Amino acid sequence: MVSLLNFHTPHITEAGCDEAGRGCLSGPVFAAAVILPADFKCSELNDSKQLSENVRYKLRPIIEANALAYAVAQIDAPEIDRINILNASFAAMHKAVSMLRIKPEHLIIDGNRFRPYPQIPHTCIVKGDTKYLSIAAASVLAKTYRDDFMNQIAKEYPEYFWQNNKGYPTKLHRVAIAAHGTTPYHRQTFRLL
After folding, report:
1. For the chain, domain boundaries
2. CATH homologous superfamily of 4-180
3. 143: which residues sit within 8 A by CB, 6+ positions away?
4. Residue 50 has pLDDT above 70, yes or no
């Protein structure tokens, strides 16, 4: 993985952005924005989907300790239903960027689409979380913070097994929806059954 800082004009403050939970039936979509030092190295860091849960949680404090700035934001299920999941993903990334204590001069976004953030240019990178450290770091933070949230609400609604499925459309999750109905955390505009 190479930082885009080596690729673009040197000395540009760049934030990597990614989201977690787009394909879920329940829970918020989370996004993170991370600004890493130009000399940051971490051989284990990769797309969060390619890492075990243990490795993700091991990397989180390393990212947080070394980042020049980071922020994590969420958009909840009723808002996802109101504006749709794509717009909610963009909104969560915008919110995370706005929370950074250092204003980035450039954003690198995982994926092929993004709604421009006011006065900060961006580059969309397909599979960016496997190519650039700051996007991979954002993917780890978004995923672990979302998992923490789902583990917490699993205690409130144990019948949906969110501590295992994290809100994704598993067979067991759909069986639980059929048996118990939906919760305030379910995305009503998604195909739940």
Report:
1. 4-180
2. Ribonuclease H-like superfamily/Ribonuclease H (3.30.420.10)
3. 20, 30, 48, 49, 56
4. yes
